[in-house]
Automatic annotation (TrEMBL):
GO molecular function term, any single one: glycosyltransferase activity
Lineage: Eukaryota, Viridiplantae, Chlorophyta, core chlorophytes, Trebouxiophyceae
Record GO cellular component, one term: Golgi apparatus
Domain of life: Eukaryota
Residue ranges constituting the Nucleotide-diphospho-sugar transferase domain according to the UniProt record: 3-175
InterPro entries in alphabetical order: Nucl-diP-sugar_transferase (IPR005069), UDP-D-xylose:L-fucose_XylT (IPR052636)
Official protein name in the record: Nucleotide-diphospho-sugar transferase domain-containing protein
């Protein structure tokens, strides 16, 4: 299914019912998009005790605080099996299934509603650890090399690279190659979806 098609939007909306079932069985889960390369184990660096941990999908300058975001990314979600989480996923599905737009638009409509953030114990991860692939961040100086620099011991090395805001396999591969995250040679065979 192509991104933006009616079938794709329906699939992304339906996944919310499966995610909720995972929570109803008492499991915690981490959702991550496939166009992501992990440099660190997110479970080692995420704060504990929240119903939901997510990431910001926007950039409005260096003074923009992630906790004030109005633009969550559905590409990374950590959920604990609390009643608040289950209710949020049900409301998200209902919003997605019964209004125009995709699951991301539904998520942010809910997130920006007057009381939705009050219904969930949540935290948004720092942009330095979880930078969005948005073009607005393309000119920022982020050290993508996995080697630690002893001269800069307080530099935060990103936990991931996410090729969002890129459409098509070539664009995503190019973005990952530029950031030293794609090590498969062009003549190698690898699975695609």
């Amino acid at each position: 299914m192509e991104y933006g098609s009616a079938g794709f939007d329906e699939m992304m909306c339906e996944r919310l019912t499966f995610q909720r079932k995972v929570l109803e069985h008492g499991f915690t889960f981490l959702w991550s998009d496939m166009d992501t390369v992990w440099y660190q184990n997110p479970l080692d660096i995420m704060p504990k005790g929240f119903d939901f941990v997510g990431v910001d999908d926007s950039y409005h300058g260096p003074k923009h605080l992630e906790q004030n975001t109005g633009n969550l990314c559905g590409c990374f979600m950590f959920w604990r099996p609390t009643q608040r989480s289950k209710d949020f996923l049900k409301d998200w599905y209902d919003n997605c299934a019964h209004q125009a737009g995709d699951d991301q638009q539904a998520l942010n409509r809910m997130w920006n509603s007057a009381d939705m953030k009050q219904k969930l114990h949540w935290y948004i991860m720092p942009r330095q650890l979880f930078p969005s692939g948005t073009p607005a961040l393309s000119n920022l100086k982020i050290d993508w090399s996995p080697n630690e620099d002893p001269a800069r011991p307080h530099t935060l090395f990103p936990a991931w690279i996410h090729a969002n805001c890129r459409t098509g396999h070539e664009a995503k591969r190019g973005f990952l190659k530029e950031r030293l995250a794609w090590n498969i040679t062009d003549d190698s065979k690898y699975p695609t979806c």
